[in-house]
Amino acid sequence: MSDRGDNGGKEGADAPSLEERATHTGSKIGDRRVRIIRPAAGEFRRHGGHYVATPRVDAPQSGFGRAYEGARRILFGARLTSEEEAGERLSKKTGLAILASDNISSSAYATEEAMRVLAIAGSAALALTMPIAIAVCVVLAVVILSESRVIRAYPNGGGSYIVAKDNHGVIPGLIAASALLIDYVLTVAVSSAAGVAAISSFVPAVHDHRVLWSLALIALLTVGNLRGIREAGVIFAAPTYIYVLSLLGLICYGLFRIVFGDAPVAVTPRDAFEPTGLEMLTPLIVLRAFASGSVGLTGSEAIANGVPNFKPPESRNAVITLVWMGTIFGTLFLGLTYLATHIGIVPDQSELETVNSMLTRSLVGDGTPFYYLVQLSTAIILLLAANTGFSGFPRLASVLADDRFMPRQFAFRGERLAFSFGIIALALMSAAVLAAFHGSVTELVPLYTIGVFAAFTLSQSGLVRRWWRLRNPGWRLSVFINSFGTLVTGTVLVVVVYTKFFYGAWMVLLVMPILVGLLFAINRHYRTVHDALLLDRPDEPIPVLKPPVVLIPVARLDRATLQAVAFARSISPTVRAVHIASTAESAEEFARRWRRWTTEVPLDGSESPYRSLLQPLLRYIERIDERDDRPITVVLAEFVPRNWWEWILHSQTALRLKLSLLFRPNTIVIDVPYHTEDTGHGVTPRGPEDSSR
Amino acid sequence: MQLKRILVPLAGTSVDVEVLRVAIALGKPAKAEIVAIHVIEVRWNLPLDAVLEAESERGEGVLDDAVKVAEQAGAHIETELVQAREAAAAIIDTARDRKSDLIVIGMPFRKRLGRVYVGKTVQGVYVGAHCAVLAYRQEETR
Fold first, then answer.
1. Predicted pLDDT of residue A678
2. A contacts of B57 (beta carbons < 8 Å)
3. Cys bridge to A419: A333, A394, A619, B64, which one at CB 3.0-4.6 A?
4. Is there a single domain that holds both residue A521 and residue A554?
5. H/E run at residue A57
6. Are B81 and A36 inside 8 Å of each other by CB?
7. Rounded to a whole number, what is the distance in Å from the CA of A21 to chain B's nearest CA?
8. Is the ipTM of this complex over 0.90?
9. Residue A193 placed within a domain
């Protein structure tokens, strides 16, 4: 004996719930027990007064679904719960590999970029490479010092965007954000193109299909990052450390030889610059060399941006990683520059061989295993430098999405807790840029680095305002450091824009304001929607509505129609069916059949001589709506085929009507699906005596 | 004796896994229907159907774990969560309603005053059940 459904004495007892309670009497007087019936046991478990969906809920039901899930699991890994987020955080070692690879990899070409500009003024001008390298390292030290202050002041990430927005206002914040977003896209495009270029130096056949190879590389990085940031770190850690250790070994070996008076003879390039130079050594050339060498400053933003990715204590770990990054880059950059200038390496005018390659050959000899180790690890780290974009862009986009400047999808974490939407969007945009520039590093490079320096300048000047406003102990030193940083990065920005403008920098300067406008427009939309949806007060009463006017478009008299009419009558007493016929005869015939079936639901028949269906129906709904202030509810009877391929055998009128009515105000559209296996569940057929009512 | 229906009361103690495995092993030859039951004993100062969040959550956990153990053993079990004043009466009545042939009930190894303590639920089921009862006592060393 049981007495079911008291639902724990709560209100809404007849509403179905994931839990029902049925009282049973026992065999002895007074023995009663309450069975807690859990139809969804295994799919939902109770936790702290609410339900938690178990992995079984997400488990695919069909064979195709299971196969897809299996493939997805192999490619991207098993799903992770939100609680596992802390386990997905980065340690300092993996953080260095994943967030600093862009910066560290710059040491592979920063020396050469500076030398290449100076070489225009002749071999003698190359002596300035070392002072320029020291200047770049000083700027890097200032940037690191400044970024560490950003990390401590803004531990939730966001980097330059947050600093600029907080201290300068929304528009400068958005300028910093759009500059960084553009730069992250370009980082991926340039790095993948540079990586493929490095490979094509060994395997010339790759050069003919470099766009395809670069796209494949972006796809590989996308999959790696969709697997989650920790796994991506594991994948990318080894190449980064191999590169760092091999170059440190090279530098130590070179210094050892120089100290012990065994300085090697420099390898000469196949296409050397004119020793006497093509131009006079002017301050502009020195500035340009400095700007080119400053590519090494890119990438330090990623750490400040990705503070929440670190294991706790996040800020401390991020600052330590930032200092490691700067130290490693500075050591490699200064070491390589010292060796290159001391030995007398001259850059190759036609870019047939890199300065680092010539330096390595000079020190360890051509064709030695160590030479190949250095070259191969350089190629791999250049490829992986693109990953800095993959860690920076999604994180910044999520911060922007949280602030409602980007679509909300960018803030959602995927099944592997990565910002999947941002990763895929970045992959698509960088792939498009890469294809548009034919995978050419030379064409892409002029667009690069403007964003980083614009963001640095805005964030450093923002910090100056912050220190000035707060005036905490030691604020004068902070103001001095960040003012110096603003001056230096601002100068670099001006030089970079000036020297690269006609080579493509104008495109970035054009896109940036458009992007700022777009971000602003997105925010305005969200604010409008928020204002429209906001409740006037938290205890706003539920409005009492009059039952709606229900219209049921009917094509034929069948089970689907019967179910839709039954449902319509359950929500309102005012129900009207409407039938559009192509001829007067069929209209009359349908009306006759309808009257024979029921007289309770009036039918409006309409003839459409041109056989159009949607327009007469929409116009009919409009006319009814004009004459009644109640909301119009359109109940659609929709037949749902059993198999997906059967869809093409049906006209999908309900679907088309649904789409037409989607944006119509004051209109509720209810779809009553009819499946072939439906048995009219919940529809109680009436006997003849009921129809008289 | 062909065992068609076996009821396994689980209290959320260390003996649960063993007693469930015993029941699965006993039921396997005749493909018996195995039902794991957890009874929440409701204090007399509360209504019988009171919503006891913490106890329900624990009970669901006990039964979910039982399902996992059964799946690992290659068996399918049903579960039932019940609130009653006394666990023994609820187990006996459930066994009667479900027409169980056997109740397999576990006893964690406990001693009181130097003697093995059976507990009132096991004792109540042993005395009052209409069907066969198999009481499984955990090893002393555990």
1. 57
2. 45-48
3. A394
4. no
5. helix A55-58
6. yes
7. 8
8. no
9. yes
Q: Output phi, psi for A582, to 5 deg.
A: -90, -20
B-facing residues of A in 28-57 (CB < 8 A) are: 28, 31-36, 38, 41-42, 45-49
Residue A300: is it exposed, middle or buried by C-beta count within 10 angstroms (0-12/13-18/19+)? buried
Distance, CA of A50 to CA of A55 (rounded, Å)? 16
Q: What residues 70-109 of chain B have any CB closer than 8 A to a CB of chain A?
A: 79-86, 89-90, 92-94, 96-97
Number of domains into which chain A is organized: 3
Shared domain for A575 and A627, answered yes or no, is: yes
Nearest to A183, CA basis, from A376, A458, A488: A458
Residue A40 confidence (pLDDT): 67
Chain mean pLDDT for chain B: 90
Q: How crowded is residue A22: how many other Cβ atoms within 10 Å of its Cβ?
A: 16
Do residues A554 and A518 share a domain? no
> How confident is the model over B88-139, as pLDDT tens digits?
999 999 999 999 999 999 988 877 777 777 888 999 999 999 999 999 988 8
pLDDT given for residue A518 in this prediction: 94
Domain region containing A619:
549-692
Q: Which of the listed ranges A131-140, A310-319, A435-444, B96-105 does the model predict with the highest average pLDDT? A: B96-105
Determine the Cα–Cα distance for residues A393 and A414; give it in Å rounded to an integer.
15
| pLDDT classification of A230: cutoffs 50, 70, 90 | low
Residue A691 has pLDDT above 70, yes or no: no
A391 within a domain of the structure (yes/no): yes
Which stretches of A471-582 are DSSP H helices?
475-500, 505-533, 559-571
Measured in angstroms, the CA of A82 and the nearest CA of chain B are apart by 20
Beta bridge pairs of residue B23: none
The answer to the question of residue A533 being in a domain is no
Asked if residue A523 and residue A553 are part of one domain, the reply reads no
Of A351, A347, A327, A352, nearest in space to A337 by CA: A347
Residue B81 has its nearest CB partner, among A32, A38, A49, at: A38
Interface probe, candidates A4, A33, A47, chain B, greatest B C-beta count within 10 A: A33
